[in-house]
Amino acid sequence: MKLPIIDTHCDLLSYLAKVPDARADRTDDIACALPFLKQGNVKMQILAIYTDVYSGSMEMAKLQGQKFKQLLEDFKEDLCLANVEFLQRITEQDRLSVVAAIENAAGLASEKAPIQAAFDNLDALIKETGRIAYISLTHHTENRFGGGNYTEGIGLKADGKKLLDYIDGKKIAIDLSHTSDSLAEGILNHIDKGGLEIPVIASHSNFRGIWEHKRNLSDEFAQEVMMRGGIIGVNFLRAFLDNDEPTRILDHILYAFESGFEDQICFGADFFYTKDFPDKSRHPFYFPIVEDASRYPALLEKLADNLTSGQLQKLAYQNAQSFFLKTWV
To answer: How far from 251 is each of 92, 156, 204, 255, 282, CA to CA, in Å?
Structure first.
């Protein structure tokens, strides 16, 4: 089933920045290599600028911004920058569009940098990449902005509030995919208290109602994303689907439709470079049903027994298309 696909999260840029001799078209290295994206009919791919919490985080984010710009230059026949005009005519497009996002605001300001560095670096990355689709304040661990999804009871910190205030009205979404529950609650409360104009999404998260995991969304926060007009990108990683059941991704998607999130659910596959990952229990990272970005048409075919053609279109591209069109205009 060859519907256009919008995917809200992959880590191609960190692969290009960290791995020697990395190439965006190297299919034996990464599951979101450009040939896989083309085979899967992906028409818009969000490329995360991912960093860990360490002293060189700002330099790594800057390098990934440069890699984004270089990617567009190296593959200019096949790639373009995602924008409103492209999205409006996505079913007619031949090329793949890309847009950058921030995964972990430690890339904007390391722990000891002045908070102004976060603002300056965000502005610089917007200039380098053309647009930032969303920002995750944290990754798995705690940083100066708040608590990551593997922390307990660490919410929104003062610098997190300052960064939220800075992106107010800038057409940049805030991403709940890597927050602790306390941080998610703090983000939502701060937005509401300040009347901030910040869209709320979960770019690559599944549902705790299907698989109990701290990386997955509780129904409460999924409802918050829905009420705020956001989107939820289903994650393809085995650890967040079910350790043993390959078809569990179908259950997560169907759960979204059954639970009232029909206009929120989209794809946020979370493909990244796994060859150097030290925890061997995580291998294989992806079940064969979603092992690389070429698998989208086959996945949609499997879902066709349970979803209407209209629902499949919402999942494949329309929900994300609608979100970004209203956010970017």
So the answer is: 31, 32, 16, 6, 21
